[in-house]
Amino acid sequence: MSGTRSFISGLICPKCGSRYDCREVQHLCRCGSPLLAEYDLAAAAKSVTPEIIKTRPPTLWRYRELLPVLDEANIVSLGEGYTPLTELPKLALRHGFGALYLKDEGVIPTGTFKARGAAVGVSKAKELGVRHFAMPTNGNAGAAWAAYGARAGIAAHLVMPEGATLAARNESAVCGASVHMVKGLISDCGGILSRSIPAHGWYDASTLKEPYRIEGKKTMGYEIAEQLGWRVPDIIAYPAGGGVGIIGIYKALKEMQALGWIGGKLPRLVAVQAEGCAPIVRAFRRGAAESEFFPDSKTVAFGINVPKAIGDFLVLQALYGTGGCAVAVSDAEILGAVSELASAEGLFVCPEGAAAFAGLKKLRAENWVAAGDTAAVLNTGAGIKYPDTLRFDLPYCPVEGTV
Ligand SMILES: *Cc1c(COP(=O)(O)O)cnc(C)c1O
Ligand SMILES: [Zn+2]
User: What is the 27 CA–ligand 2 centroid distance (Å)?
Assistant: First the structure.
């Protein structure tokens, strides 16, 4: 892809409008808000088209003009992106959708969509000369950043709650990250790092405290549109924790409109949360601009156990801005959805992805989703990364017997 370039023009604060230089390390705005990358979309539209993109390799770097890395030599890639958008014909028929699609991030390197954020975030960190980064993580983000950090030759310092999955712990450690466990929650891990990061001079790679992982995650939005022939579904359902993915998809949709690649009608974005951790759902019901801390949060869907997200106001803007909504599902509904997707369509999804499907079913049952609507569900990771979520008591038979 020589001759291509990034059309990033800078960083902007979505709260106060302050602008920052993207050629230097930046974290939060001085007002405390996350920063978002801005592009010269008019110039990009003259340089790249859907027809050109179609000819490129099937990774998220096919949208290179809309990604923040300036020098191609800094790209750190394991082949991430362009995951299947699998049609679910049986479940569409069963539940009365016009068409139902599952964007399957279970097959991406590291087994979760956190690879998208890590690929772009680590590449940009490399470009900025970062040697060490640190983050608190519930597991999947840390594992992905550890993998890309190893490939980039950047040291990863991770702090994880003891509840993090064994898969993510092992993956982080084997990739050479320094991993510290905490008898507490992700918020406690964040507290420890807020003291350690300035002491060591590490790059703070916490969710939305660096502006580039969202740029990786937004490519899910570009891919859904491209895979549907530059059309968008009526609804996109997303399992929201920190909310980076849904903020990113909303950003991608607006960029694609400005580029002239999709029409004026946006999909209604749906944030699905677990009943045991539903700060965005509570805020949405009140019509609020921000969420409140959700105490004693608990759910089998560990990746969406985020009691208060720093980008909550951006998630709510994405919902209000598209006529979308937020909905909560129980752990029983989540596990039921894992089984339904696997037994009907052969897709063993992670609990978070199952939550998104369960939320969509609930909205269909309430007729918020109309019969015949087209919907896409984000499955954010592979079910096989969560070997302890399901328990089957399988029958033994005598060695000389028959089954
Ligand atoms: C992190 C994570 C989520 C939530 O992602 P956000 O974009 O931060 O809301 C969902 N599913 C899985 C598997 C995750 O690891
Ligand atoms: Zn600001």
Answer: 11
Which of 139, 135, 133 lies closest to 192 in space, CA to CA?
135
Q: Is the CB of 244 under 6 A from ligand 1?
A: yes
Q: What is the pLDDT of residues 266-315, one digit of tens each?
A: 999 999 999 999 999 999 999 999 999 999 999 999 999 999 999 999 99
Alpha carbon of 314 to ligand 2 centroid (Å): 13
Answer yes or no: are the C-beta atoms of 297 and 228 closer than 8 Å: no
* Domains along the sequence of the chain with CATH: 85-112+214-385 (3.40.50.1100)
Q: Is-contact 158 179, C-beta < 8 A?
A: yes
For the entire predicted model, the pTM comes to 0.97
Non-local (6+) Cβ contacts of 396 within 8 A are none
351 lines ligand 1 (CB under 6 A): no
Minimum-distance ligand to the CA of 381? 1
Burial 154-184 (b: 16+ CB within 10 A, else e): bbbbbbbbebbbebbbebbeebebebeebee
Closest-lying ligand 1 atom to the alpha carbon of residue 245: 7
